[in-house]
Specification:
The chain is globular, with a radius of gyration of 17 Å. It has a single domain (about 5-220), classed as NagB/RpiA/CoA transferase-like (Rossmann fold), CATH 3.40.50. The strands form 3 sheets. It has an 8-stranded mixed beta sheet with strand order 6-5-4-3-7-10-12-13. It has a 3-stranded mixed beta sheet with strand order 9-8-11, covered by helices on one side. A two-stranded antiparallel ribbon has the order 1-2. The protein is α/β, with parallel strands linked by helices and about 240 residues long. The chain has helices spanning about 5-15, 40-45, 50-55, 65-75, 105, 110-115, 120-130, 155-165, 225-230, 235-240; strands at about 20, 35, 60, 80-85, 90-95, 120, 135, 140, 145-150, 175, 185, 200, 205-210.
Length: about 240
């Protein structure tokens, strides 16, 4: 089986031809998940899904490839939650009508989200309600739904916290929006904390994945040092809620 690091490096080379550079990191894909040519078509395919159309509350990652989706959600007055970059400032909630329509393009970017989104902690997330659909970017995703990002596993950690709090469950749909060059056919070993996608949306197709494994639930606290818990505000909050720290 191929190692994620090897696949990631190969995909990053292919991405250079289709990625939209980041304003701060240019094409250093180890620092961010890029936007790409054709993301509008990939987003179209996701939004046509019945499960997505019926979702009351959506969770979206802060990846650049999610910018178009965030813009569309704002224009449609659909509520969503986004984690801040590396979860350093927790989560942001965008309520219907919170953003003037003429500002949707700016608000969808990370700096705009920081301006228009309402900061919320985990306790406040539980008051907002359960997520009906989760959407993420990826450095690459296998055809059977195993996704991997920059190597920091933030989405997997977010899933663990959300399942601990009852905000998502095993059947909550997860979709990845990626370019076609980011979809690989290699077989990957599934780690204990890997979150597989149910759908893969690309500029040319929407693939429905038949997941062969169940997703993990909760947080394995043994994977984190006290310093790592202290440096990640939502994880620190959950540890206090569970009497761990």
């Amino acid at each position: 089986m191929s190692h994620p690091r090897v696949i990631r490096q190969r995909i990053w080379e292919s991405l250079k031809a289709v990625a939209r550079p980041d304003t701060r990191f240019h094409l250093r894909f180890s620092e961010f998940i890029p936007d790409f040519e054709g993301v509008e078509e990939a987003t179209d395919r996701l939004m046509q899904l019945e499960a997505f159309r019926n979702a009351r509350l959506v969770f979206v990652t802060p990846d650049n490839s999610m910018t178009e989706l965030r813009r569309r959600l704002i224009l449609a007055d659909r509520p969503f939650v986004m984690s801040t970059y590396n979860m350093q400032r927790g989560f942001l909630y965008v309520a219907p009508g919170a953003v003037p329509k003429e500002a949707a393009g700016f608000a969808a970017w990370l700096d705009g989200m920081e301006h228009f989104g309402k900061p919320v902690n985990l306790a406040e997330l539980t008051d907002i309600g359960r997520f009906d659909f989760l959407v993420t970017g990826a450095s690459a995703v296998t055809s059977d739904g195993i996704r991997f990002g920059k190597g920091h596993t933030y989405f997997d950690l977010e899933w663990g916290m959300f399942t601990d709090l009852g905000l998502v469950e095993e059947t909550t749909p997860v979709a990845a929006i990626v370019h076609d060059v980011q979809v690989v056919d290699e077989q990957m070993s599934v780690g204990d904390t890997d979150i597989a996608a149910d759908f893969i949306a690309t500029p040319t197709r929407l693939a429905r994945v038949a997941r062969a494994t169940r997703r993990p639930r909760g947080i394995d606290w043994g994977l984190f040092t006290p310093e790592e818990i202290a440096e990640t505000p939502p994880l620190r909050e959950l540890a206090r809620m569970r009497g761990i720290a």
